[in-house]
Amino acid sequence: MKYSSKLLQEAVEAMSSLPSVGKKSALRMVLHLIKDDTEKVSAIINSLTDLDQHLKTCSTCYNYSDEIVCNICKDPSRTRDTICVVESARDVMAIEETEHFRGMYHVLGGVISPLEGVGQEDLNIESLIQRLKETDVKELIMALSPTVDGDTTVFYISKKLDLERVNISTIARGVSFGGELEYADELTLGRSIISRIPYSLNLD
Question: How would you classify the pairing of strands 56-57 and 64-65?
């Protein structure tokens, strides 16, 4: 695609670097912004600048946050003896949308994947272990995507824990094997959380 403006070309290339955004879609968005009022464009620019400069990672659960500790971790109405372990902040948002879970979270930042070069040292696993040592957590819900890598991660974490003190459960297989948690519909994901089963049963 040929552009009459280098500025236009750079804007399209920047937009098309986003997931699921092709060059044609990026061009439509850029042209829309050019024609739109300057207030909307400025609002988008300011929002993205604030995101880049001020977005933090919660020091407790590793979810995205505006402050050192996120709103979920600070919420006194949340149950403290249950932690739901997820791969990413997107999974936290997906589970929160179901309104079926009122405990705490821990974001691993991915799953163990030898083929992708991701080891346990690349994830927030040691901080999870330390967190369990310092708090009175009774249950760990492993809400990882039902894939081989997800199951490997659950197995690794289970071997690092004192299973007499902490019960490990996994979400029910309403989420199909090989799927990703964030793409499950709210009803299916909510039922999977409610119908979670002890992890030991998955080993039989």
Answer: antiparallel
Domain boundaries, the chain: 6-54, 76-203
Let me know: does 97 contact 154? Beta carbons within 8 Å: no
**Cα–Cα distance between 201 and 204 in angstroms, integer?**
6
**The 3-state secondary structure of 6-70, one letter per residue:** HHHHHHHHHHHCCCCCCHHHHHHHHHHHHHCCHHHHHHHHHHHHHHHHHCEECCCCCCEECCCCC
pLDDT of residue 187: 54
| pLDDT given at position 129 | 94
Q: Binning pLDDT at 50, 70 and 90, where does residue 38 land? A: confident
pLDDT in tens, 124-140: 999 999 999 999 999 99
Which pTM value belongs to this model?
0.78
Domain 6-54 in CATH 1.10.8.420: yes
Residue 36 has pLDDT above 80, yes or no: no
Domain 76-203 has CATH 3.40.50.1220: no
Residue 11 CB neighbours (<10 A): 19
